[in-house]
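Help wanted!
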Amino acid sequence: MQSTPARAVTTICQALQEQIEHGLLVPGGKLPAERTLSEVFATTRITLREALVQLEAQGLIYREERRGWFVAPERLTYDLIERSHFHAMVLDQGRAPATELLSARLQPASAVICARLRLPALSSVVRICRLRRIDGRGVLYAEHYLNPRYFPGILELDLGQSLTETYARDYGIRYGQVGFEIVPTALPQAAANALRVSTGSPGLHITRVNSDQHGHLIDCDLEYWRHDAIRIRACAG
Amino acid sequence: MQSTPARAVTTICQALQEQIEHGLLVPGGKLPAERTLSEVFATTRITLREALVQLEAQGLIYREERRGWFVAPERLTYDLIERSHFHAMVLDQGRAPATELLSARLQPASAVICARLRLPALSSVVRICRLRRIDGRGVLYAEHYLNPRYFPGILELDLGQSLTETYARDYGIRYGQVGFEIVPTALPQAAANALRVSTGSPGLHITRVNSDQHGHLIDCDLEYWRHDAIRIRACAG
DNA sequence: GAGTGGTCTAGACCACCAA
DNA sequence: TGGTGGTCTAGACCACTCC
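Answered by r_m:
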């Protein structure tokens, strides 16, 4: 059937996959060192790494820059329609969310952001960069861009919390229409660094453009997810 | 700023990226041979290939099994809300669609399909496998599973056409509610073969579960897209 | 049949993480 | 400081594509 006569890489993938599926390697657990594994499978590190990269692409294992390889936990389900925010979503699914504020400041908007928010050239926007974790593992790097007109003084608030809740509590703003754009691509430098992922590894880029209950474009956010950490759901019709 | 002192791989990526963005390499065009490129950049094939794989992950270039590397065309925009079908979508975006029927038959449903279509164990389903192309390039491998109860005699019809139109024309069935599930993962063997992609390369897996205008679950399809060929849009609220 | 990509070997050095 | 992962070298053979 299969013309390929059992590649070394394939054999290694299957062996590891079997061990993982049978629970001999637990989610979040660390794999043995690459050199050890390459001895176990009687091959070179290069070949072994190719197998690991393939399992990484499948989402079965993941890598932490310079720390090693780990068994991937279950994906988070992200429902496009039931607009929940990160903390609630993660809690609902029995996991522990955390948010780390990386930076927040007022700055000139890039051309891309001006277009998304329909702002004139050289407008200022509030830019908030955050890292989100599930059970301690960084899964999402997000850049929020807010139209400052709707959010006076927001830089003084606690931005480690849910923005959705801050909007409602401090500004009386709730989300109305939301536009999504989902693109599978490599993680850009900033996202890769924050997620401690090697540069150029596959990721999922989600752009959200948010309007409030009155139809004003209030903000947008650029989300970069580890590709193995997410499953998107939606219902239409 | 950047602690890394300009890796060889990074340098190569930037050089190629620049050439592509400035149109010296046109979409669909073939890159020079790997050995040629490795000489141009004064490095080994292994290192050069790593750079190519990274550009592939970014969606800038793609590979055709044993045929070489090519510059990736623009992505197709797939709108979850405006339920259009493949042919119409592709035409609307000024491209040329094509569909190739790979197989079609009645067979016992797998457990996964039974669950999706809420069928009892060991039910039979119609399974239709197709390859879809844009401007001649294979971008989507799709497996359709139809509840045969709603589609008597469908295996006798021309399945190279739009199923959506066949449903409407021959069975008076239109789509009602549709459920989506989107998961970034490696392409499985069958999809990789059909798309002439190397096994285990990254892809996007979309599962659709379709109801008709009366709310009956009529079919589902498992779609496997080249990760660089698609951009998903949706609007909610 | 020539050339290409797919696969694999057998090393090496460095930077960083953990102990 | 030892071990790990990140990166790179300099080859090799095979199967397939394309001429």
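OP: Thanks! One thing I noticed: The two ends of chain A are 42 Å apart (CA to CA).
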